[in-house]
Amino acid sequence: MKLKKITVVGVGLIGGSFAKGIKEAGLVEEVSGFGHNESNLKKAVELGVLDTYSTDIAEAVKESDLVMLGVPLGAMSSVLESMKPHLKSSVILSDVGSSKMSVIEAVKEVFGELPPNFVAGHPIAGKEKSGVEAATSDLFVDHRVILTPTAETSIEALQVVENLWKALGANVVSMDPGYHDEVLAATSHLPHLLAFSLVELLNEHPELGNVFQYTAGGFRDFTRIASSDPVMWRDIAVNNSEAIAKWLRHYQQSLTELITMVEQKDSDSLYHLFNEAKQARDLHIVNKD
Amino acid sequence: MKLKKITVVGVGLIGGSFAKGIKEAGLVEEVSGFGHNESNLKKAVELGVLDTYSTDIAEAVKESDLVMLGVPLGAMSSVLESMKPHLKSSVILSDVGSSKMSVIEAVKEVFGELPPNFVAGHPIAGKEKSGVEAATSDLFVDHRVILTPTAETSIEALQVVENLWKALGANVVSMDPGYHDEVLAATSHLPHLLAFSLVELLNEHPELGNVFQYTAGGFRDFTRIASSDPVMWRDIAVNNSEAIAKWLRHYQQSLTELITMVEQKDSDSLYHLFNEAKQARDLHIVNKD
Question: B83-115: per-residue pLDDT in tens?
């Protein structure tokens, strides 16, 4: 299947990096963008992210062979509604949202069923920075992109989306959308919420005053993800709430056990816990520091 | 007060970096080291960290004008006991331990009282790496060193220790030892324990399998401190247990509120929390990324 025009709806860091990679690789004739902020779209053209743009959704998706949704999870439904009347019947729809069940639900609701040409996806790439200025064509190189096809998904559409991500250097895997949401709740959503919570707890705490002045590199690294976009994270928390709440509760249970060890000065259990964690991290994240 | 000989007891990253800085600055005639592992001490001499060393504590602290304790918190008491008979009466004692009340208690127990020439201290410098191989003379440049003098501490001894740290480029502040332990429990011990706990929770969790393969930069940064030395952290958890348990409970309370927000899909409260945290981090840690 030869694509002529791709439209990226929501041209931020992820959508913009996808667009820029496709454009630089010369994979299609036209990479178009849609958004509400015209100056952002103009900048995207200047930065080599887009060929064309429109703030009119009908114009932006017109004759498009593939529409990639890069909008926040909270905007998925309304964006889908607005583009629906203007899509080619053969269009392939995909997205980069951080939770997949909620996007699949939104698509099902808007279209009345899951269109076979809809392929839900999620690139696992750093997102502390945001905005099209931070977009780079190599953002996905050697990064995982998770696709979550359902029983309804056409093999051909899945292949097209997979090949695009592979062309950008990504390491593509497919998994069940529910499993995706659990895995991401545990490995991404949970740590982000933990980091936000720690910074908020310590921020001008009445007992301590400004303690940030006494922090060093460890705190800086631990809390880096607390500089992420609060709108995006609000949307993730709301759209993957069940899995996130579950993993927050699992984590609270771990902390309950930890508090007991600390209060009882249980050296052996503390050493065991810290050593197991260090071994696991050194083993699995070894080449990533 | 002119110092001729300084002895560093426990020549790892912190003790070694202190020794190397003192030696490179030519502040004393002899920088000596003590430890149990002779090959480590030999390496320290080769790396320009020490002038001399001994595995005999009597020899190592003999004629020393200042002894800097760089051993794990769990070894403080026994090391103090073993060196006590061999110390010059005028010796200045200091340390780099991560909790201060427990070190002060140990000194009081071993000496029967707090010697006026004892100055408890704690450099706030990154400690994921360990070992003398990682020691650098500039480790403390622009880093905080917290000294925690008590009513018994001699002004002169305090001044000497402060001047040494300043000579290494550190930004020295004094505070109450109890306040130090609270601040460090909140800003350092808490995040370290949170990171260890998260990695341990996710390590081969029966519901998810190996999820580390789906993590990216955010997880890597968040868990970097979980690669820290488990012995050191066991000792910190045991030696500052009261303050750490207290802050773990504060944090659990924050998580309880967060879980409610997530379960209720309370967008406004979630946005408020994430935004406040982001603002605080961007404000206070702004120049540290």
Answer: 999 999 999 999 999 999 999 999 999 999 999
Say if CB B70 and CB B11 are below 8 A apart.
yes
Residue A134 touches chain B, beta carbons under 8 Å: no
Q: Does A207 touch chain B (CB under 8 A)?
A: yes
Q: Is A221 on the interface with B (CB under 8 A)?
A: yes
Task: State chain A's maximal CA–CA distance in angstroms.
Answer: 67
**What beta strand segments (E) does chain A contain?**
5-9, 30-34, 52-54, 66-69, 92-95, 118-119, 121-123, 144-147, 171-174
> What phi and psi values does residue A205 have, to the nearest 5 degrees?
-65, 130
Domain hosting A241: range is 179-288
The CATH number that applies at residue A28 is 3.40.50.720
Minimal-distance CA residue of chain A relative to B204: A280
Which residues, 6 or more positions from B96, have their beta carbon under 8 angstroms from its beta carbon? B14, B15, B18, B68, B69, B70, B121, B122, B123
Which pTM was predicted? 0.92
ipTM: 0.92
Q: Do B198 and B55 share a structural domain?
A: no
Which residue in B220, B254, B259 is closest to A288 by CB distance? B220
Chain B residue closest to A174 (CA)? B214
The last residue of a domain, from among A154, A175, A196: A175
